[in-house]
Amino acid sequence: MRSLIVKGGYVYDPLNGVDGERMDILISGGKVVEELDEREAKVVDASGMVVMPGGVDLHSHIAGSKINIGRVLRPEDHRKDPVPRTRLTRSGVGYSCPSTFVAGYRYAQLGYTSVMEAAMPPLGARHVHEELNDTPILDRTAFTLFGNNYFTLKYVKAGDMGMLKAFIAWLLRATRGYAVKIVNPGGVENWKWGRNVGGLDDLVYNFEVSPRQIITSLARANEELGLPHTIHLHCNNLGVPGNYETTIDTMEAVRDIKPREGRRATVHIVHCQFNALDGDNWMNVRSGAAKIARYVNAHSHVTLDIGQAIFTDTTTMTGDGPWQFRLHNLTGNKWVNSDVEMEAGAGVVPYTFRKNNPANAIQWAIGLELALLIYDPWRVYMTTDHPNGGPFTFYPKVISWLMSRKARTETMLEIHKACMRRTTLAGIYREYDFGEIATVTRAATAKALGLKDKGHLGPGADGDVSVYDIDPTDWRPSMYRQVEKAFSRAAYTIKGGEIVVKDGEVVAAPPGTTIWADVKIPEDAEEELMRDLEADFRSYYTISLANYPVQDEYLPVQERVAVDGRRGW
Ligand SMILES: [Zn+2]
């Protein structure tokens, strides 16, 4: 591959302290380098444009059984947004449940080069990896579901941290997963009996453990193993008015856990917008974002992503089966609920966020309040929890709201006045600058994920770069439409040193790399675990243990992140 120079752009590289300086980015052998022979290199003229590391989305749903159920459930979604093939790209469908190829193209068109699939049921791991392989351009990881897994509950109940840690290491390897995902811990297990949990100290049937025990045990195990990312937690009581209290209780529960070396966080709270509601019911619901922000501002062990709501028709999908049933009852919309034996569950329900719906107007404001009231952009990240809050294709719109109070005000005037009365958004003047946008969309997310070669443009970083056609020296927040336009169609997206998007069009679609965490644990701990797994697999699973782990054939392009879990043993 030829080397490449991205020349003369205004570079925003927060991890290296670069904030809009004009400089060249040199790429050779797929990596950012300090020097190269300019005569040999292809030059990308970025003068007058914004240059950032490739976008890193730390929470999205783009592959596997759940999104696939969404595709099947929603023919109307496809009809709205058919995508024809070109000489280079394949046909597909878009909107809220895009087909695999379209997801890859569209993320790249926005300047994103890495995306994390946020919920992988272990038994569905092969399906996840098959679809990730069909998703071009993007590097990715998948987060394995642990919070309602039979073995997790069994070892938490026994108080056996050794077995729990061994199980985490083994299951991440077996599924080629990257991080520990927890969804409504205990609630999804109870849903098998038609129930849920209502707080951190309710009990899980048959196991007699509480969500608090599940969360703290997994968080402790996660940090002792030294995994690159913290636990990735979808809190209990999602979508329930008043749930901000549960969210703060949850953050408080993991406050005293010792983080792994080199980080301060012990938990990442996902799509917090859905878990920041104050009030007692849907009639008097109001924003709890300010209270969450106050807690996060005062404590350094929490990161979160906003899960911004977008006024559009979308498809919600989550491992939180009981919530999805509730949403079906709230809306009357068609629904799917599924149980993944021994491991997890899921639900899918189409949903439309409406401007004239007071609860939706409040939800819209909450995401932005979280992003604007939490001072430290290294701890609050931009997501829509695609497709739950809305499709990722709306990221440029979210960027315009973050960067422009005028953009927010114009939307506020169009939507239900509950937004004015029951949120603090109208009184917030903060506007993000380009450096902060680069932080919440790539630098901070890569850092939180522990992806060392991503989210920055220093020597040794992956040659993933996005160039946006907007001049930051000649830009004011009132010109938010320009920023939305520029971030919608990257002038260039460069992936591993190869130009994949030019002027908003896909010009190359190389395969991406699947990154997973390979955790080493003591041999005797692994042997003890295997004996226990074998017995229970024989008794309870419909698949034999030998057939369970994902074979390497499922990951043609992979990168193993080696973690030495023995150090904290
Ligand atoms: Zn999610």
Structural summary, described in words:
The protein has 569 residues and is an alpha/beta fold. It is 34% helix and 23% strand. The chain is built from 18 helices and 26 strands. The strands form six sheets. Strands 1, 2, 3, 4, 5, 21, 22, 23 and 24 form a nine-stranded mixed β-sheet that branches. An eight-stranded parallel β-sheet has the order 6-9-10-11-12-13-16-20. Strands 17-19-18 form a three-stranded antiparallel β-sheet, sandwiched between helices. Zinc ion (ZN) is lined by residues 59, 61, 118, 270-271, 318, 385, 388.
Keywords:
globular, Urease, subunit C, domain 1, 9-stranded mixed beta sheet
What's this, in brief?
The chain has 569 residues and is α/β, with parallel strands linked by helices.
Ligands, deduplicated: zinc ion
CATH superfamily of one domain: Urease, subunit C, domain 1
CA distance, first residue to last residue:
43 Å
- Show unreliable segments: none
CATH class category label of one domain: Mainly Beta
3D shape: globular
Strand content: 15-25%
Alpha-beta content class: alpha/beta
Question: Biggest sheet, open or closed, and with what strands and sense?
Answer: 9 strands, mixed
Total helical segments: 18
Radius of gyration: 22 Å
Based on the coordinates given, report the CATH architecture of one domain.
Roll
Number of strands: 26
Mean pLDDT: 97
CATH topology of one domain: Urease, subunit C, domain 1
Helical content (DSSP H or I, runs of 4+):
25-40%
Mind sketching the topology for me?
Blueprint: E1 4-13, E2 18-28, E3 31-33, E4 42-45, E5 50-53, E6 55-60, H1 65-73, H2 75-80, E7 82-83, E8 92-93, H3 100-109, E9 112-120, H4 125-133, E10 139-145, H5 150-158, H6 161-175, E11 179-183, H7 187-191, H8 211-225, E12 231-234, H9 244-253, E13 267-269, E14 277-278, E15 286-287, H10 289-298, E16 302-305, E17 313-318, H11 321-331, E18 336-340, E19 344-352, H12 358-373, E20 380-381, H13 395-403, H14 405-414, H15 418-421, H16 434-449, E21 465-468, H17 480-488, E22 492-495, E23 498-502, E24 505-506, E25 514-520, H18 523-540, E26 558-564
Parallel strand pairs: 1-4, 1-5, 6-9, 9-10, 10-11, 11-12, 12-13, 13-16, 16-20, 25-26
Antiparallel strand pairs: 1-2, 2-3, 5-21, 7-8, 14-15, 17-19, 18-19, 21-22, 22-23, 23-24
Helix pairs in contact: 5-6, 5-8, 6-8, 6-18, 10-12, 13-14, 13-17
This protein binds zinc ion.
